Every structure is written in structure tokens, then in C-alpha cells.
Write the C-alpha cells for this entry.
Amino acid sequence: MSEAEIRRAGPDDADQVGTLAERVYRQGGWADERYSKLLLDGRSRIEEATVFVAVAGGVIVGTVTLGRPGTRFANMARAGGAEVRMLAVDEAARGQGIASLLMDACEGLARDEGFAALVLSTAVSRRWGRGCGSASARRSRRCRR
């Protein structure tokens, strides 16, 4: 795969952005039906937040959303901060530093726009939660680190 170019997503990218994010999150076990609908809606993210894409060989292989405080794409960020969400890299493109490039784009924009903080929105994987994520499971011998 060729080196990825990072750029802001435009309206023509909305379907690819949504499809990629939803597929990656669903395959990872991180999206239920409700969240899948939000992930598939690339158009709203592009209109209401800043979405970066990684393009390699003419195909979008990664995406990330930078939400601003007071919007529906910033659940954790406080005033003066921005929130990174919905980071997704196609399985075939992993291990090439694409997620790092997308994060660098978010950090650069946040710095350029004068945000005091950048928050990364994450969630515990459902698979991990069934394994060692619950309090009772963490007390078990197999989940101790």
C-alpha cells in the first residue's frame, strides 16, 4: 500500500467515512445498533465537526473526528478543549502509522485553533469487558496483572 495522505474530509467523502468507521467498530465489537447509526452518518460529522481522512491508493483507509465543546461530537471535552472520536483504520492498512498520522492532524488543528486540551474518547471493548473488564473478573486470578 502506498503512503497515506491526510486531509480534511469533504461532503463527497461522507459515505466512505461512515462505512469505514461503522465496519471497523462493528468488527471490533465496539458498536451496538444505536452507535452504528451514528458511525454510518459521515455526513453529519463532516458538517458539524472536523473529520480527517487518510487516503492511500485513492481509497479512504482511515478516519477520525475532532469534536468541539458544546456539540454532539464532544461528550467529554470541557470548555477550551476538543475531543477526538471515532478513530478508525481499515484492517488491511493497520501497522503503517495511519492512526498516528490522523492523531497528529487532530493535535495540530487543536493547537492551531488554541485549544487548551485535547481529549481522546475511548471505551472498553465489549470483548475485554466480558473477559477482564468487570470488577469481579478483575479479582479473578486469570485477570490479575
User: Anything to note?
Assistant: DSSP finds six helices and five strands in the chain. The chain has one domain: 5-143. Residues 5-143 form a domain with the Aminopeptidase fold (CATH 3.40.630.30).
